[in-house]
Design a protein that fits this description.
The protein is of the alpha+beta class and 209 residues long. The protein is built from four helices and nine strands. Strands 1-2-3-4-9-7 form a six-stranded antiparallel β-sheet. A three-stranded antiparallel β-sheet has the order 6-5-8, with no helix packed on it. A hairpin with a 7-residue loop joins strand 3 and strand 4. The radius of gyration is 23 Å and the shape is globular. The protein starts with a helix and ends in a 6-residue tail after the last strand.
Length: 209
């Protein structure tokens, strides 16, 4: 009798353990369906031709604006859907290695490391745990992210990094405009009401040949 009881207890304990593991797995948060990562929808080794084959009619080659009136030839994914449209630029003219994937629509569904277009700089600074440095406003490349200063977002994606251009909706003090780099901790930043204006991911350059 005692052996049967022991065996019964063992089965109950094992079953309880499996149930706990299953519950833990069920609670693990899934990657958002619209999350851009280092491997989706564009990976670090994707060429322009590979993307055109993969997405078929949902991708095409276009001249993409890169600032100061200049353009570069790249791939546009979901070109007929303004909300989901993604712009892919490449490191070299052979377009074998992607440089960045970006999107601009205010109502875009995409998320990068938990960041969305419209997120406030103050909120990102708090989540990052360290100051965020970016190009001062007032030029074509104004608001372009420089560094997360080793904070949470610096390593959030792994083999690529979030790429952000900030926009200002409020008062711009002279101290945060013009050439140079500014910080989320600048005392005049609060009046500028800064938010994420465009967003994406940026890949490391290919190794020198």
């Amino acid at each position: 009798m005692s052996r049967k009881i022991s065996m019964g207890l063992a089965v109950l304990i094992a079953t309880a353990g499996l149930t706990t593991i299953a519950q833990g797995a069920a609670k693990k948060p899934a990657r958002p369906a619209n999350a851009l990562t280092c491997n989706w929808p564009v990976g670090p080794n994707d060429s322009a031709q590979a993307l055109l084959r993969r997405f078929g009619s949902q991708a095409r080659m276009e001249d993409i604006g890169v600032g100061e009136g200049e353009t570069e030839r790249g791939v546009v994914i979901y070109p007929r859907d303004p909300r989901r449209r993604l712009y892919v630029l490449f490191w070299n003219s052979d377009r074998k290695r992607p440089q960045s994937v970006r999107f601009y629509a205010d109502n875009a569904p995409w998320v990068v490391a938990g960041i969305r277009i419209g997120d406030r700089l103050a909120s990102l600074r708090e989540r990052n745990g360290r100051p965020i440095r970016f190009q001062q406003f007032g030029a074509d490349y104004g608001g372009t992210l420089h560094s997360f200063e080793g904070g949470h977002f610096a390593g959030a994606l792994g083999n690529c990094e979030p790429s952000i251009t900030f926009s200002a909706e409020g008062e711009l003090a002279d101290a945060i405009t013009g050439d140079g780099v500014t910080s989320s901790d600048h005392p005049d930043m609060g009046k500028a009401n800064v938010r994420v204006g465009s967003l994406g991911v940026r890949f490391s350059p290919p190794p020198a040949e």
